[in-house]
Amino acid sequence: MVDDSPRTSSPQQASLDAECEGERLVVRLAGDWLLGAARPSGDDALERIAREPALRAVAYESGGLGSWDTGLVTLLARIEAAARERQVAVEHRGLPDGARRLLDLAFAVEEREGARRQAVRKGLLTRTGERFVANVASLRESLAFLGAFAQSVGRFVRGRANYQRSDLWVTMQETGAEALPIVGLISFLLGLIFAFVGVMQLDRFGAGIFVADLVALGMVREMGPIMTGIIMAGRTGAAFAARLGTMKVSEEIDALTTLGLDPMDFLVLPRVLALVVMLPLLTLYANLVGILGGMVVALAMLDVSVVQYWVQTQSALDVGSLVTGLIKALVYGVVVALAGCRNGLECGSSAQAVGLATTSAVVSGIVGIIVTASVLTVIYITLGV
Fold first, then answer.
1. In what order do the strands lie in the sheet with 89-90?
2. I want to staple 245 with a disulfide (CB 3.0 to 4.6 A). Which of 146, 178, 197, 357 is the partner?
């Protein structure tokens, strides 16, 4: 709402002066009160209303008032509310007609008792119980999702899964070839770090050549699979959650269900299969690049040749070490893909929910990788692998 008074070529600075005259507080308004311009906060008038014990009425003088909009009305409403709280009368005669009508409309109906939401402070026991119930419900949903995926895998094995083969190949390209640069960069730097730390320690004992063993075994058995899995959790798991979450918001998943297509077969299965196939291959690539990074440091800091380093690397590695790392990579692929797809399918129906689902997919994927890495390591140690 803006008054009909003529505007000047340049806006005048808004001003407010509150002065007590006996039992009345006179609020003088001048200048242009516009939302886009600087204007007084009105805290002085509100403080006087709250603290003056002899105050009986609030009056306005707006002879110097220029252009105005809701920036003025907002202040007047705050003054009106503060005066009503202290049961102080408010005289609207000094205000423009439009402002008086807006104030009358704003306070025409009293606020219903109990309509305003009250902040409830819950006790520790209540919060603990609610969190426990929420975790149990989340666990139940996760088990239901895993059960539905197991049924989808069964249909795939029998050749009855309904999905598009082209989606599988496109997803394999997105999760494989397009991920080579970031995986290669991180793995190369990781090999550099491993080799540098090893050289600084082993060279003191004249055993610098064993840096090749450290880098090779560290990359192949542990760091290659786990770092590749974490990279894919942040890159691919988040993409899965965002894509499926957007489909959930736009009701595309409901449309697939209406057409008789199972979202678990049509959307989840190709993504899991693609990541299960590509993550071990990316791990092999990461192992090779990490070993090359270690070789660069060894050649620069030690008196060894490329042949010596490569022969030492071959003597440190065996088929068992390579297979154990690839098994971990395969499991990490399942974990990352399922975490991304589950959070995407369980996304809410808003843009904010898509962001939360993406974040949750990355977090749950990385946590799942760490947990499964610990479990697999314990199993390997128990079996003597």
1. 15-21, 24-33, 57-68, 89-90
2. 357
